[in-house]
């Protein structure tokens, strides 16, 4: 869709199928400890909790039989509590940590079959990481930090500084090019980290809790920066966080991990409206549902006299916006797609969402999806 997705990003194979996933991960395990190979696929061990496994075998299954795909152009969020395996997972994607078993492909290419040179290419050009602790070079200026990735790619000085200048502007650091990292605030330092990653024009940006060291306001700023970059460039991102509101704000889809395994993978709306288990339910308990759930999920079938009247809303309108529309008009609104009325929302439907009340039998998730699919 954009320059970022059309380019080959330094990898030898040409134009990529936009529908093909960027990353495809299957049955991935990373086990730390003695004789780690014996753990994946062993049914007896699979039944044990992380603590039991550690006690029995001395091994930690940091990533436990995980499968997922990262679609081209999406922000794929990995969320979970401390120790749930997020960093291990993202590092195995470029084999900064070698997986114990399973498969990983990027653009259909087997990452586990890559030789040293190809791996270097993968880490330097095709992907770029942004870390929590910024990872900047203290004795270099902002500009030279941003240009660093281009330098190790072998780009000449004038060219890389020109490129770095553009990126510095893009992330709002103009005027600070000659400062050292220690002369910057935390938020500014992380902008340098982000700029350095963007400078190499990677196919995928990998973020490992990049904003968790920042105070809330700066953090919000940086999140908006990521949203903006994503909107403007359509770049694929894997974003790790343990912060639910960050995950909801940024994620097209969220994968929730616990104890190395995947508990749920879905859109923010799916996760909030339909938590897979008690653990997820607990996680999303305090989320303002009206800001995540859309009228497609909240609507009920229209009565015969309702289908022709009432303001029209698109199916992905958030409940919070529908509340305003319904309050304004004083009557129900129709949910309309391609000129067809899919259903209606009224005061009671919208309030039920806010209150987190399980909607009646005619509006279960399954039915909502069926209606939507017609
Ligand atoms: N090199 C290692 N050797 C042994 N165990 C490890 C190693 N690295 C990580 N672990 C263990 O693997 C599990 C997952 O760790 P990981 O760093 O991936 O978690 P995380 O979700 O990123 O946590 P955090 O939010 O604190 O960064 C933890 O139990 C951790 O102790
Ligand atoms: Mg981590």
UniProtKB/TrEMBL annotation:
Pfam families: ABC_tran (PF00005). Keywords: ATP-binding, Nucleotide-binding, Transport. SUPFAM superfamilies: P-loop containing nucleoside triphosphate hydrolases (SSF52540). GO terms for molecular function: ATP binding. The keyword 4Fe-4S does not apply. SMART domains: AAA. PROSITE patterns: ABC_TRANSPORTER_1 (PS00211), ABC_TRANSPORTER_2 (PS50893). Residues 48-284 form the ABC transporter domain. InterPro entries: AAA+_ATPase, ABC_osmolyte_uptake_ATP-bind, ABC_transporter-like_ATP-bd, ABC_transporter-like_CS, Gly-betaine_transp_ATP-bd, P-loop_NTPase. Belongs to the ABC transporter superfamily. This is Glycine betaine/L-proline ABC transporter ATP-binding protein. It comes from Streptomyces monticola.
